[in-house]
Each structure stands twice: as C-alpha cells, then as structure tokens.
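Following up on my earlier thread - several people asked me to post the actual chain instead of describing it. Fair enough. Here it is, all 408 residues.
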Amino acid sequence: MSQTIPPILSVLPTRALVDEKFKVLVENLPAGSPVTLHSLHHSEDKDYWEAYAHYISDHRGTVSVAEDLSFGGTYTGIEPMGLLWSMRPVPGSRTGLRLRKMDVRSPMLVNISVYSGHIAEGFREQPPLASVLTERWYMAPGVRRIDIKEKGVRGTLFIPPGPGPFPGLMDMWGGGGGLLEYRSALLASRGYVSLALEYFSPGELQSADLEFKYFEAAFNIVKDHPQVIPDRVGLFGLSLGAVVTMCLAAESTITKPRCCVCVSGSHIFPRGETLSGIHKLMARNSHKARVDENNHHIWRDLNLPITSDLSMKVDVRRINCPMLLVNGHDDQNTPAVESAEDVAQMMHAAGNDHLLTRLHYPDTGHLIEPPYSPHFRATNFIMESTKAKDEMHQKHVILLKWNFSKET
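Reply from S.P.:
Thanks for posting it. Predicted structure:
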C-alpha cells in the first residue's frame, strides 16, 4: 500500500471500564484497501493474547469496526468489540490458559494496531501502519478497596465513590478457591458495595454449621457497613458460589437478602454437608465422567439425572426473595439448565415461582464473565487431591469446557 498521507487510527475512549464499548476507526486509507486490525495484550501471567480481523476500506478510505464487516480472522461480521472478546493466546502458548485480572488496581493494557493487507500471522515481524494503546479498567476512579480480615472472614470490600449509602452484594466465586476481585471491583464501579469473599479451602471448615457461620458473618459485614443500605444486600454466586447462594437464601439465619443471583450453579447439595462434600459426591459419581475428543473432562453428567430425593438438594422452596438464574446451554461442567428446571418446579410447588427469573444463553458454557471478556473453550482447573485412587483426583490439572456467548 503506497500513499503519502499515513493512516490515522483512533480508539475512543482509550481509557474505559471493561464493560464499556470503544469505537475503533481507521481513516486516510486508499479506497478499497485490505487491512488487518490487530489487538495484543500481555497478561499478568506473562502470556500474550491477540485477536485480529480483516477489513476493506470504503469509498472514503475508512474502516469502522462498529459498522463494517470483518471478512476473516478471529471473528467475522459486524462485531464492535470483537478485538476484545475474540482474543486468544498467540500460537505456541501454553495450553488451557484463562485470561483474568488479578490486580484490579492496574488496567488491562491492550494495543490496537492496523496492518496493510489481510494477514493472520507474523504481526511482530512487520511494522503496523498505526497503533494505539488502550486501558481497560475493572475499578473506576474513586472506588475504595479495603482488605477484610475480621470475624474470621477473608476478602476484599469495594466501595463506590460518593457519600452513599449504597446497595450491597456478597460476591462468591467457585470451587477453584482463592480470592478473585475483578467482578466485585466492577460492581463497585457501577454503584454497589461489593465483598469479594475468599471462602473455599478444602478441609478448612469441618462442619456445615461452621461454614454457615462464616458466610453469615461475611454477609453481616456488608449489611452493617455504614455506607450500605442494610435492607438492600444481595447474594451473587458463580458455580460453587451459586450453591452457597441458594443455601444461604434457603437455610441460613441471615436477614432476608434483597435478591440472589446464581450463575452456572446447581441446587444439588446434600443437607448438612460441608462444601467439601461436593467433591465427595463427585468422587462417588466419577464413573459418569466423560472426556471429549481432546481429552477434556466433562463433569455435567455427575449430577444427572436430577435426583428426586429432597435431602440431596437445597430446599429452594424456602427461598422468599427474588432469584435470578443465569445459565448456558453448553455448560459442560454443571447441569445448570436441568437444575434450573427442577428449581422452577420446586418453587412453583411452593407458590414462589413469581420470585424466579431464568436467563438461558445458547452456545454458552460454564464461565459467564463480565462483558467483552475473551472466550475460551477449555481451561486448566486445579483440584486438590484427597484420594489418589479416585478417578476424579488422579490429575491435579484437568480441563473443563468453559465457553460463553459474547453477548453475556
């Protein structure tokens, strides 16, 4: 491509929250020119992620990612945010990678570049026509981040800017354990006091009673905070966190939560059992596990068919606050859709189906992340071994199908 006026690449805004859209525009191209838009991110784990798409400039010499078709690349069609959600590890990277932000006090840096021609590799070997560095934040300016270590509770509290008071949420992730803050930081950026709760350490809490007290103490830390509206505190859980959310709403003595949001979870949970009991249940049903053509482990059959034994399920009939179930039809980790149907039947029998809202997304898997997060089909999942002979525990690193719709 020969021209005297260099192309102009603009990305607006260059600094934004991760759930905000940006507009990518290339100008000053010759009409009808093939170009490739490319995004590159160097993760905190020191891995490179990229996306790219092929465009042809219009009669004005312009390419607008928000309005024009991508003819090839990591996505096709009109996808304004495709340069983010279709990012994948660069060729030659480690397998089973998952992109997630661990330090929310710094942004995700994504470099957007435009190249001459339609290319699919060698981006580092040739100079771009133009580049722009963008910042994608989970924590908005003014959000306060507070370490919580009180009443035996571990986590991080995020408080929105301003005087408050605000509605509150207790935010719980899944069985992988550890402390993940990015969802809570984003929720606080949108006006909710949110506690990212660290809660899962196998064998740590030896009785269901102790576990309930831990979660009740955490809920009360949010409810009793001076910048929280005490009767507007909800529960938010993903995967195992969704199980905890249902248990707390149905069985615990906490003040009635304002609402419950359960993402990719199930109500299959033996009464009086600890969270570790889920792993025991999985081990007992390990003969139902499958692998796909790539030897990725599929766990969804372990709890199928959904039992009719009420002692093996959270008694969701006792839930008396609004509950939202968000699930993907392609969840290979948990039978979330089948579980949601059984939850609906149980709540209907109790006359509480008016409290239930269900969202099901086609072609969507287990891990439903904040908007525009990169997709992946499988990821490494580390599970603590309890019995070396158990099939489910022979591998410390297993692969699960985790994919999700770009619209979620």
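The chain has two domains: 8-137, 144-401. That should answer part of your original question.
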